Fold:
Amino acid sequence: MRRVTTKRELRAALSMSAQGGGKRRVLVPTMGALHAGHAALLRQAREIAGEDGVVVASVFLNPTQFDRAGDLASYPRTPDEDTAICEACGVDILFMPDAQEMYRSDRSMSVEETQLSRVLCGAKRPGHFAGVCLVVSKLFNMVQPSDAVFGKKDFQQLAILRRMVRDLDFPIHLHGAPIVREKDGLAVSSRNVRLSAQQRANAPQLYAALVRGREAYMGGTPAGRVCEEVRRDLESLPEVRVDYVQMVHPDNLLDIEPQSSGELPALLAAAVFFGEVRLIDNVEIIQN
Ligand code: PAF
Structure:
C-alpha cells in the first residue's frame, strides 16, 4: 500500500497504478477513526476492484461538514490504526491530506444539493451536506474513480451523493454498503466510543425501536403512529433526546403520508442524542 498526503503524490501514485489500463478504480472516502463498518466498505471496494483494479481510501476529517465546532474537536483521530486497517483490507493507495492541502484559505466555491438535503439530518444540521458534497466532489475530481462505496447508515448522505453524481454528470457508479452492527444491534459508529457506560447500555434501543416500528408498519399500523410509538419508546430512556423519527421514501426522502399503512418501499430513520452524542440509524422497509 502507498500512503500519500499531497495531491501531487496522489496523482503520481494513481498514474503508476494506471499502467496496464482498463482497470476499475474504487474510492472509499472516510473521515478516519476507522472501525468494522469502514473495514466492510474497504473489503467491498476490494471485491468490486478485483485483483487487477485499484482501491483508493481517503482519510480526511473534513471541517466544512461540521455544524458544531465541539463535534469536530472531539472527533476521534487514529491515523496509525487507520493505516493498519487500510493495509489489512487490501487498500492500494491511502490518501491522508491535511486541511491546507484540501482547502485554500480563499476558497469561494460550494456544491449544494437543494432538495434532499433540506430534510431529516439536513434540517437539523445546516450546511452539513454542502460540506459533504464539496469534499466528495473534490475527491472524485482528484481520484477519478470508476466506482465509490458509501455506507447505508448515512442513508441520506448516499441519496444526496447519488443525486450529485446524476445532476453533475460524474461518470461514477455508487455502491451502498449494508449497515454493520454490534452483537446487540447498535450500528457501528466512530461516535460510539464517546458514549458513557450507561448511554452505551441504552444505545441498542435505537435499533430495537426501529425494528419494532418496521414490524408495526408491516402489520398495518399507519406511518404517523409508527413514528410516534418509536419516539415514545426512545424518550422513555434516561438521558435521551430524540432529534427526529421519520418514515420517508428511500429515493426522494419525502415523508410517507402519516395515514398511509402500506406504502413501500419506505425508510424508517431516526437521530437521537444519548447525552451529548448524536446517533443515527435506519431500517429499510421493502416488499418481502
Ligand atoms: O461519511 C463520511 O465519513 C463523510 O461524510 C465522507 C463521505 C467521508 C465525507 O467527508
About this structure: The chain has a mean pLDDT of 96. The chain has two domains: 2-177, 190-282. The first strand starts at residue 2 and ends at 4.
